[in-house]
Amino acid sequence: MSSSPAEVAERLDQLVILTERLTYLVAEQAKAFEAHRPQDALIHLEETGRLANLYRHESARIRSTPDLIASANPTQGVRLRRATEAFDAVLARQARAVGAVKTVTEGLVRAIAEEVASQRQKGSSYGSGGLQNPTAAATAITLNQRA
Questions:
Q1: CA distance 134 to 125
Q2: Alpha-carbon distance 24 to 45, whole Å?
Q3: At residue 20, does pLDDT exceed 80?
Q4: Residue 14: inside a domain, yes or no?
């Protein structure tokens, strides 16, 4: 089924608008992580998830019909390409910011676990000669090295 030039133009305009909005939201999340305020990234989380899902569907639809882009106005193709490049760049920025937060969080958890383990008193028991034998302290903290 062939789409009219007006329908193609409308669809591509909507995809550009969607991509630009998603780029803005992801950039805001990245800024929150970079400012060490991950709680601020939650503000638009629902909208970002909804738009990301819509973007995924629309991108798949366009990939499945390459003639749609080929029949587009060259100016629209350039706009879509630029919006997509900006989106890719902001995704890379967010990945770096989230990776840094993950590294810091893992370091804090590890440091807390080590401090708790070092502060625990080792238990002791009496041996056959009436002297105390140190025993290993039980610990309930588990660190997943693969997470």
A1: 6
A2: 12
A3: yes
A4: yes
Render pLDDT for 67-118 as a digit per residue (tens, 0 to 9).
777 777 888 889 989 999 999 999 999 999 888 888 888 888 888 888 887 7
Identify whether 86 is part of a domain.
Answer: yes
Phi, psi of 128 (to 5 degrees): -65, -25
Q: What is the CB-side half-sphere exposure of residue 95 using CA atoms within 13 A?
A: 6
Q: Which residues contact 98 (CB under 8 A, 6 or more apart)?
A: 33
Per-residue tokens: 27? 């950039």
- The alpha carbon of 96 is separated from its chain's Cα centroid by a whole number of angstroms, namely 9
| Total structural domains within the chain | 1
State the DSSP string of 46-69. HHHHHHHHHHHHHHHHHHH-HHHH
Identify the CA nearest to 88 among candidates 46, 57, 55, 66.
55
Contact 52, 22 (CB under 8 A): yes
Q: Please write down the long-range contacts of 85-92, taking CB distance under 8 Å and 24 or more positions apart.
A: 86/19, 86/20, 86/23, 87/19, 87/22, 87/23, 87/26, 90/23, 90/26, 90/27, 90/30, 91/26
Would 103 be classed as within a structural domain?
yes
